[in-house]
Amino acid sequence: MQTETIAPFDVAEYLETGEDIKLFLKEAAETGNTKDFIHALNTAARAKGMTEIAKQIGVTRASLYKSLADDGNPRFETIAKIVDALGCKLIVS
After folding, report:
1. What is the tally of structural domains in the chain?
2. Nearest to residue 48, comparing CAs of 14, 86, 89?
3. Which CDD domains match (predicted)?
């Protein structure tokens, strides 16, 4: 009997364009809670490249990973900088 190994699904692998990231974050913001949005930021940052995002916002890659971890608690300023580095804007409506 043959066994197959199934790789875990990673949304980050499918966020290929800035528009993909924008739509993904918009959906997370509209349907999720704060933790879900931070998780979505983590996914989007991984898709774009954690090193690149960290450099753009002026933190270390390790610090960025820590901020966006499941038990992380990033400051609003950090969230705003990440959103901006991803080419998006925070809008209240």
Report:
1. 1
2. 86
3. HTH_XRE
Is 61 contained in some domain?
yes
Whether residue 47 lies inside any domain: the answer is yes
| pLDDT band, residue 75 (cuts 50/70/90) | very high
41 closest CA partner among 60, 58, 28: 28
Q: Quote the tokens at residue 93.
A: 């409506």
Scored b (16 or more CB within 10 A) or e, 6-38 reads eeeeeeeeebeeeeebbebbeebbeeeeeeebb
Among 83, 87, 81, which Cα is nearest to 19's?
Answer: 87
Summarize pLDDT for 7-35 with one digit per residue, the tens.
899 999 999 999 999 999 999 999 989 99
Q: Which domain holds residue 80?
A: 18-85
